Amino acid sequence: MINWNKTIIWRIRLGELLAVVGIYIVLYLLYCITLTFNELAYLKITFPELLKNYLVSQFFDYSIKFILTIPIWYFYFRSIPHWSLATKVFLHFGTLVIFVITWQKLFYATMEFLGRGHLRGSSQIWDIYIPALIYIIQFGFFHAYAYHVKFQQQKEIENSLRQATLESELSAIKAQLNPHFLYNVFNTISASVPPEMEATREMIAELADIFRYQLKASRVDYVKIKDELEFIEKYLALEKNRFGSRLKTSIEASDELLNLKIPPMILQPIVENAIKHGISPKIEGGEVKIKIEKNDNYLIFEVNDTGVGLNSQEEVIGKGIGLTNTKLRLEKMFGELLHLSPNLPNGLKVWFKIPILS
Fold first, then answer.
1. Which one has a higher pLDDT value, 269 or 319?
2. pLDDT tens, position by position, 220-261
3. pLDDT(175) > 60
4. How many helices (H) and strands (E) does the chain have?
5. In this structure, what CATH number is given to the domain that contains residue 288?
6. Rounded to an integer, what distance in angstroms lies between the CA atom of residue 170 and that of residue 357?
7. 172 within a domain of the structure (yes/no)
């Protein structure tokens, strides 16, 4: 069975590509037939011979139009999809002129090379009008289709967020059994630890802080980067107590970024995955590096480990709850992707970007 939604290149689906090719073939055939009927009354030549002549010449005509469409389509729908429609319409005046002039020169050169004729003199106005009309129609269709796809995606996201909101509200109700009881238990345990076991007391305090942060994270939409990193450091401190010298960590983030806000608990699942699936299986252990940097209007987050790596994304995405949820959060909140790639010479690199929040 043919998968029409299979991505071919540049996130173009097979069905979309075949639809555009099909439209071009229909336009090509209809134009050839129209020209044949129009010229048949003036020329002493049979219908099949005249149609064959136009099929050859117009094949090059529409092939050049199709090829010229590709970079222009890529520019509008892959390079600047986030620009306003008004800006794109203004730019279309320029790309329309480029499209028509380039097509005309390439088509005329091809016909002269093949020893075939083309329109001359005042008749060349048709070789401006028709390509311009095709350009306007096809890009009008492309923009309408892009708007339709975006509208459908927004509806899906809204439905998903509505469902997620209901689930989070239920989770919040369950979590509000009495967090103070949990903290009191931690304090009671900590107080019962003998003074000579100060390291254990510190671990209990760090664990209490982690639970406190998780409760806070369930009630707010955004936290400061410095708060998220403090939480990560406490989590890593507990992991280091478990792994000992097998686990090394480092965090890189400039001071200017620390007060910027990000969704809470966005890094911890990635760090946990790096330790659980990357470092833990190795006898000698490894290192986890966390890096946050600014690039234009985006924050770039990287978590690199020197663990065992993975053969395919399917090993973790879709199976593990942490990375899968992080992937969904990035897609639904910002329309961004979670990227996984090898961390040479060994290990895994997980990174993503989000816009800087005002």
1. 269
2. 888 899 999 998 998 888 888 888 889 999 999 999 999 999
3. no
4. 9, 9
5. 3.30.565.10
6. 28
7. no
For residues 248 and 202, give the distance between their C-alpha atoms in angstroms, rounded to a whole number. 20
DSSP 356: P
**What is the rounded CA–CA span in Å between residue 54 and residue 173?**
72
116 & 260 share domain? no
Q: Are residues 251 and 148 in the same domain?
A: no
Q: How many CB atoms lie within 10 A of CB 152?
A: 10
Give one DSSP letter per residue of 199-229, joined into a string: HHHHHHHHHHHHHHHHHHHTT-S-EEHHHHH
pTM to 2 decimal places: 0.51
Residues 151, 288, single domain; the answer is no
CA distance 216 to 308: 34
Find the domain containing 268 and state its range. 246-355
Instruction: Assess if residue 346 is contained within a domain.
Output: yes
User: What is the count of structural domains for the chain?
Assistant: 2
Q: What average pLDDT does the segment 118-130 reach?
A: 86
